[in-house]
Amino acid sequence: MKRLLITGAAGNLGKILREGLKGYADILRLSDISDMGEAGPNEEVVKCDLSDRAAVIDLVKDCDGIVHLGGISIEAAFDDLLQANFLGTYNVYEAARQNGVKRIMFASSNHAIGFHKRTELLDDKAELRPDSLYGVTKCYGEALASYYYDKFDVETVSVRIGSCFPEPKDRRMLATWMSPRDFISLIKAIFDAAMTGHTVMYGVSPNKSVWWNNDHAAFIGWQPQDSSEAFRADIEAKFPEEDRHDPAVIYQGGGFAARGHFED
After folding, report:
1. Cα separation of 242 and 250, whole Å?
2. Do residues 142 and 193 lie in contact, with contact meaning Cβ atoms separated by under 8 Å?
3. Is there a contact between 256 and 75 (Cβ–Cβ < 8 Å)?
4. pLDDT, position 236
5. What mean pLDDT is predicted for residues 121-127?
6. pLDDT of residue 82
7. Which of 106, 238, 257 is nearest to 174 (CA)?
């Protein structure tokens, strides 16, 4: 790959990929509205507001693939999400269509299905049950990705990311955790695959506690290596046993599902 664009490059996931994808593409084009520092070797740093369609169309020029992480990654007011997540995601897809980019990794979220109970094992056919306005924006992004594949042959892997940090931060993350190493290998697998169509899969390491099933996406060839089990003893010693009657424990979305409407 000659040039790979990463939107949201100043965020946690963007930083992981900026380091982990060095040498994967000839050039990493990094974009965000926040400071990303100076461009390193084989990098291009482009500040861009994703709600500005003309700017996004320019941003995507000469790119062979897009890792779309940009936007608001937490619950927020609808008007803010409207600009960053609804309009911004549309602009990325429209820019891809106009510039002939044929594959995108869309950073969806487990919060698109957060009102499923933890006792359910979900695959790509699970009903969308967003636990927040933020989760609604990810349902929209998955639908948009499906539309752009069916109508324009722009392939997407929509990854419902769990919790990607160096190690799990609480008991819930024993099930949702994805290691940075596994995330990097997932991105490589997505862009190395012969074809992807529009595939929805879960961004999670092979942990002992399992809520999500990626068997349907085996053709992509991702083989994650890490597990949260190595951290279980420390996490269980640090955090008290969960109350099984707590909505944050009943539902996969955790605290997002338990909270009230953001704008109340």
Report:
1. 10
2. no
3. yes
4. 97
5. 98
6. 97
7. 238
Between CA 97 and CA 171, with CA 9 as vertex, the angle to 5 degrees is 110
Model pLDDT, residue 197? 98
Residue 89 belongs to a domain: yes
Instruction: Name the 3-class secondary structure at 140.
Output: helix
pLDDT given for residue 17 in this prediction:
98
pTM of the model: 0.97
Q: Is 134 a catalytic residue?
A: yes
Q: Domain containing 124 — which CATH number? A: 3.40.50.720
Full domain range(s) for residue 75: 3-258
Q: 87 burial class (0-12, 13-18, 19+ CB within 10 angstroms)? A: middle
State the average pLDDT over residues 59-75. 97
Is 173 within a domain? Answer: yes
Q: Quick one: pLDDT at residue 129?
A: 98
Domain membership of residue 27 (yes or no) is yes
What domain count does the chain have?
Answer: 1
Which member of 90, 93, 134, 140 is catalytic? Answer: 134
Kindly tell me the burial class for residue 238, based on how many C-beta atoms sit within 10 Å of its own C-beta (0-12, 13-18, 19 or more).
exposed
- Mean pLDDT, range 51-63, rounded to an integer: 98
